[in-house]
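Table S7 (text form). Paired inputs.
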Amino acid sequence: MQITSDKVLLGFLAGSIVFYLLSLQFVRDTAVVPYRDSVAVGADTTSVQNSPNTKQVTLDSSSYELKAATATRWKLPKRLREISGLAMTNDNRLLAHNDESGVVFEVDYQNGSIVKSFGLGDLKKPVSGDFEGIATVQDTIYLVTSSGRLYECREGVDGETVLFNVYATGVGREYEIEGLAYVPGERVLLIMSKNPMGSEQKGKLTIYRWSVDTRQLVENGHTIVPLIDITRYIKGKKFQPSGIERHPVSENYFIVAARQNAMAEVTPTGQVVGVVKFPAKWHRQIEGITFASDHTLIVSDEGARKRATLTIYPMNK
């Protein structure tokens, strides 16, 4: 009788052990996989795992290939030799401008031709200024100068002269300005700094927010990025920004630097996600950046003594 009880006990223990081992295997097989939301740009850096509530684009090779072999490049007409900023309209048309005069061009980015142009004030003698960025807000166009002055106008037809308003933002007292972009959800313009005017601003990249509703800077609404957070990714100690655009998917800011031939991705709170280089040799001086409706990356290069160029980098399929 005792022997039979022992056998039953041993059988029960053996069954319990087998059940426990099978349970462990089931847990391993059904473990939760971390959520990954990565729309990537460029190459050379790794993806970042995010929670389901975060929106980030990471810089790796799985989305945009910044390679000459996959890019489309157009040499632009001589009228756009000093092309600077780029912006897309709501109906996916590309607008651009030169550095020194208030003339806005519509460019067909499928072939590099000029569709139309219109001037602020007078097309034959448009308003002059060191224009460094362009953005569209519905049917309104904004241009920013290096001194931080904002020009506001409607879109004109070919050859038209349009009236404009001018706003003094005051940011030119702290930095030279070098870029403009629009954030629809916040209804603010992003005004990006370049060269600091004082010692307090050195080593920082500041992005100001200007409300299109109140027509003034958002109080305490600027983002500060320590330049060392960007330069540690690339050779050299400088990153001199020349253009900024908000990515329509991630909502992060993509910033190009002409002299460094580089592009940085920064979150709205100032965290640097990564930096990539443009390897194509034709990039002499990248001045503008924007995204088409299909998220294609478009950048412009000033021509200097040659023809300016427009380069289109499609997303990987």
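Next pair, protein 2 of 2.
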Amino acid sequence: MYIWRMLQDQITQYTEEINAFDTNNAAELEQFRIRFLGTKGIIKDIFDEFKAVSPEEKRTLGKVLNQFKQLAEAKYQTLNETIADAHGATEGSDLDLTLPGEGFEIGTRHPLAIVRREIIEIFNKLGFSVAEGPEIEDDWHNFSALNFPEEHPARDMQDTFFIKKGGEKGDVALRTHTSSVQVRMMEAGQPPFRALMPGRVYRNEAISARAHCFFHQVEGLYVDEKVSFADLKQTLFYFVQELYGEGTKVRFRPSYFPFTEPSAEMDISCSICKGAGCQMCKGSGWVEILGCGMVDPNVLENCGIDSKKYSGFAFGMGIERIANLKFEIKDLRLFSENDVRFLKQYQSATI
């Protein structure tokens, strides 16, 4: 009973002392912490004496002792925060502002964006502007106006992502090429036209290292009076020399496209093996990079242009194919996986 009363008197006395204590000095506060909360402090001593109290008295005194300890801890915490705030306001933070700052990590353009921009800049020198159009197209702009027959395989569900079949305006689908932008341009005005149509296109294909269900194209259109196939050849020859360097060889092979006549596919000497033969060119020394041809008169007439007065040429290339040759990338899936490690490789190539 004596110990219980003695401890209670001590707690009452120290409680009054704690409540009255106030300081804005860190050293004084540290002395307070040592005196009450230290390993050899008052609270530790009281807890040691508490062990001698009878079990009946411990229930009552234990609660009072815990409240006393919490009071001391709260007092210390409050004063410590007050002093820290005052120290920061008057003396500043602990940061050394004279040290050099941490630099921001430099970003990079996507390799496809790099190639796309380079292609546009080359054709800009020849007077080609840039035109864009919607990625969701109706049948007329995506197929019919471009001279695609009804039975053409590109209209089949296996090749095209259809959004809507039938209806007043016909089928609606994700565009399979940016040629639809050419149709919209010719419908909206009169020649001369000289423009590039870059953009994303979609085809229903299995995804692999050499194919994807979406990819990027750059198509070009030039319509004016007396435009010839020679104009087409010289334009593309200039483009290849600018993109891959002087000395790059070019060859044209006859081909077929519904919207051009005559049509051709253009190959260049492999920029990787310099024509000696490698995996990229399949040992032939040549790589196909684009299709081209003279705009079919039916396409001009479908767009309201007099095919007897005007002629033109068109070409189209996959940006991924151009980037493959330029950067020697063998897997198309890398372009769309957003792997930062892959993108950082082209930081020095950013224009």
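The first strand starts at residue 129 and ends at 130.
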